[in-house]
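Supplementary Methods S3. Input chains for the assembly prediction are listed below.
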Amino acid sequence: MPPAPGTSAAIAVAGLAKTYGAADKPVHAVAGIDFTVTPGSVTALLGGNGAGKTTTIAMLLGLLKPTSGSISILGTDMLRDRHHILPRLNFSSPYVDLPHRLTVRQNLKVFAGLYAVPQASARIEQLAEELNFAALLDRPAGALSAGQKTRVALAKALINQPDLLLLDEPTASLDPDTADWVRSLLEKYRREFGVTILLASHNMSEVERLCDQVLMMKEGRIVDRGTAPELIERYGRRNLEEVFLDIARGQGKAALEAAPA
Amino acid sequence: MSIGTNSDSISCSLQRMAAMLLRHWYLLSGSWTRLVELIYWPAVQMIMWGFLTQFLAGKTSYVAQAFGVFIAGMMLWDSMFRVQLGVAISFLEEMWSRNLGNLFVSPLRPGEFAASILIMGLIRTLFGMVPVSFMAWIFFDFSVYGMGLALAAFFFSLIMFGWAIGIAVCGLIMRHGLGAESAAWGAMFLILPVAAVYYPVSVLPGWLQAVAWALPPAYVFEGMRALLVDGVLRGDLLFGAFALNALYLALGFWAFMALFEAARRRGLLLGQGE
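Predicted structure tokens for the full assembly:
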């Protein structure tokens, strides 16, 4: 989805690549991708394991230096001036955790300090109410269940009321009820605060429900893009999961298009 | 619209560092085993050196004349070791809890992160060494504070060197992962033989003396002996120590930042931990 006229993209990525390994045996984790994300929209990076989703998100956040390409986030060159824009971003990922020995409240207080959140205690209470973990505030983070941890990680990701939220597998390892609850929360935040969301997921129903734009990744490349209904129609399938399988296995329309003329 | 967007101001920088100190205070204050450990090892060392000093004082005129030279040496050495270890452990706490990704996506800058763990190293050291210094006073009638202002100069000189090694070790662990964790405990002992803590530099072979004089601790411990044995405050040794410390601290920071960038290039900031 291109940005509306006169509106700069929340995310604009051009020629983004990450290559590991020796020059004679390079491994292209991300092989030159381009995309834009419209402010206030939800975009999914969809792909199998090793497709390059997490690598892309790590580069967007500045945790990983790209080999080449450019990243503009909220109008700021992320590769040159990331610290200028970091107060307006946040993220959650299954690859990071909050210190287990600190209580939930202590963890959130620390991050409120890092993001210079005014009236931190009130903000923490507010998030605890919204995300339904007020009773857990004084419990050590390490003593929480997977679902509770996800809610607390989301609270950390929302503590600064970010303009851009990057979520890596936000509902991974959650039971269907909790996963549904998390999706509803993200929809609410987008509706109420106009937050832009980029998420990486393996969950097709989640993507169909939440996302305005889907970027299909395979072997470090964006192999197709569009809205979920557009992709389903383009591949002649019933749902996004079948589209995903077509692309992942190189079957159906995906295989025909990939074949030489 | 996000909140708290004036991130570039100095006040915010101090606020971010304060947040990091708060994080470590929560950890320490919530774990009595961590607090006890800060005092336990220096106390055991001090008691052992205290009894050895009592024994040697009756046997040799050197120790009888300068009672406490070993205890003072041990306490100053341990201050340097503890501050280096404190810095490394403050860093390792983030690695163990897989929190580095969260921190480096926040507005916290690497320099602020480094400064906060250096301060934590100092706080942890003071928490351990101050009670131990009073124990030496009570049990062995030796007050390290008898050295007066020179003690502060010796102490801060060694703290600076402990910081330099500590921050470089953090960079090493960030770049090579928890496989390099043993460097946190072992790095400082590499220089112990040439630090001249318990014996003068002159007892070392010639080539090793050159190595010793290239490192700040030799200046500090020679200065300490000059004060406790001869009653002379050697300004030249103190100056040499601080000049070298400035150099090593700059090198330590440079190594940390270079290894941080290397970790960013290799994608090691996300997902490191146990």
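The radius of gyration of chain B is 20 Å. The first helix of chain B runs from residue 10 to 29.
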